[in-house]
Design a protein that fits this description.
About 40% of the residues lie in helices and about 25% in strands. The protein folds into three domains: about 210 residues, Actin, Chain A, domain 4; about 120 residues, Sandwich (Substrate Binding Domain Of DNAk, Chain A, domain 1); about 90 residues, Substrate Binding Domain Of Dnak, Chain:A, Domain 2.
Length: about 450
């Protein structure tokens, strides 16, 4: 494929015995870049075998009244016969499954003999194939591509010899799968090529992998703030600027997580370290530069640096941190399953953070303005602040929003009156006082601004 002399978008459809994987690659000029991956560790040829086994058990039970589910020896024979029949139906329209002496009762031995057609097999397993196509759709979404953008489709795994799979892949991608590669040998060939690249024996090929899950840090309220998104090509380096959550905070704990859930504690903690020696200052003033750096071997280096003092601390996390493909897919599925619940919880945390930042700004302004604010206005503000803090202790987002709006409205009224009285601006309204640090200048690696705060 790489000898066609142009950049190609290639989909690798890998339907194995126990797992299914789809990878979207960008190939050109000796560079093989993984753009996106997805899969299901509980979908494979074994599931199709099991459908045939269940059909045989039900047919035999309806004819003889004998349930083969409890007979381990019979189940093993059924499994072997099912796999053999499945393979035969990739080239034949009909096959016969014959298992003599599969069971016995008072009347004597029982034999199983059933004809299985390709049409019946396809009806049994169509939903499994449809699941694989849906996963392909998600991988293309991650890669920001459509099926029409794919130039070639490569089939991997002996199960892809099944005509139904070839038809489903052809219909989805709108083109015939590439037939020049043996689906049973392709994995071994790929492994051999990668080994040669890593050993330095092949120098004109570059393999670029992607991060399987998002990487980030825990911020104020337990929110997971993503620094390197899932499916980012490695090696990569990303920087974000954070700030403190409390006045005179002299240290921050940087907790590094991996996962797709918006709440940090529901992801996998990879490591943590503390940055100390931050000069005492009001919250939101210190600037802490957090950098994630993944090298070509997949090793993650995380550093935190106080921009004022240059003080720095760092941690090294080895490749994949022991996560299996199954664990990665489980974490992705968990994120999809709990998406709505996580969204509501994150909204509640963000609202609490917003309310807390506004209270801080109002109290700071009240202290600085002193007697310029009347006693009655101070009393009203203190009452609204107390009410908002009580709401923040609960779980009712609408009540927090209503009480925050009330405090914002009252502060807007008071600050407007003060402005008119003094014929000029007195204080920057808290609405404009961001709790987070702003980036002061451009960075080589393009750090992003953020108004999140690192958890103490």
């Amino acid at each position: 494929l790489d000898k066609k002399g142009k950049h190609l978008k290639v989909a690798v459809y890998d339907f194995g015995g126990g797992t299914f994987d789809i990878s979207i690659l960008d190939i050109g000029e000796g560079v093989f870049e993984v753009v996106a991956t997805n899969g299901d560790t509980h979908l494979g040829g074994d599931d199709i075998d099991q459908r045939i086994v269940e059909w045989l058990i039900n047919e035999f039970k309806s004819e003889t009244g004998i349930d083969l589910k409890q007979d381990r020896m019979a189940l093993q024979r059924l499994k072997e016969a099912a796999e053999k029949a499945k393979k035969e139906l990739s080239t034949l329209m009909e096959t016969t499954i014959s298992l003599p002496f599969i069971a016995a009762d008072a009347s004597g031995p029982k034999h199983l003999e059933k004809k299985l057609t390709r049409a019946r097999l396809e009806a049994m397993s169509r939903d499994l194939i449809d699941r694989s196509i849906e996963i392909c759709r998600k991988a293309l979404e991650d890669a920001k591509l459509s099926p029409a953008d794919i130039d070639e489709v490569i089939l991997v795994g002996g199960q892809t010899r099944m005509p139904l799979i070839q038809e489903a892949v052809k219909n989805f991608f709108g083109k015939e799968p590439h037939k020049g590669i043996n689906p049973d040998e392709v994995v071994a060939i790929g492994a051999a090529i990668q080994a040669a690249v890593l050993a330095g024996e092949i120098k004109d090929i570059l393999l670029l992998d992607v991060t399987p899950l998002s990487l980030g840090v825990e911020t104020l309220g337990g929110v997971f703030d993503v620094v390197i998104p899932r499916n980012t090509t490695i090696p990569t380096r990303k920087t974000k600027v954070y700030t403190t959550a409390e006045d005179n905070q002299t240290s921050v704990m940087v907790k590094v997580y991996q996962g797709e859930r918006p709440i940090a504690s529901q992801n996998r903690l990879l490591g943590q370290f503390e940055l100390t020696g931050i000069p005492p200052a009001p919250r939101g003033v210190p600037q802490i530069e957090v950098t994630f750096d993944i090298d070509a071997d997949g090793i993650l280096h995380v550093s935190a640096r106080d921009k004022a003092t240059g003080r720095e601390n760092k941690i090294k996390i080895h490749a994949s941190s022991g996560l299996s493909e199954e664990e990665i897919q489980r974490m992705v599925k968990d994120a999809e399953l709990h998406a709505e619940e996580d969204r509501r919880r994150k909204e509640l945390i963000d609202l609490r953070n917003q309310a807390d930042a506004f209270i801080y700004s109002v109290e700071k302004s009240m202290k600085e303005l002193g007697d310029k604010i009347s006693a009655s206005d101070k009393s009203k503000l203190e009452e609204l602040i107390k009410k908002l803090r009580e709401s923040m202790a609960g779980e009712d987002a609408s009540k927090i929003r209503a009480d925050l709006d009330a405090l914002q409205g009252e502060w807007t009224r008071i600050s407007t009156e003060l402005y008119k009285t003094t014929a000029g601006p007195t204080e920057t309204p808290p609405q404009e006082a961001e709790s987070g640090a702003q980036k002061k200048g451009g960075e080589d690696e393009g750090p992003e601004d953020t108004d999140y705060e690192v958890v103490e």
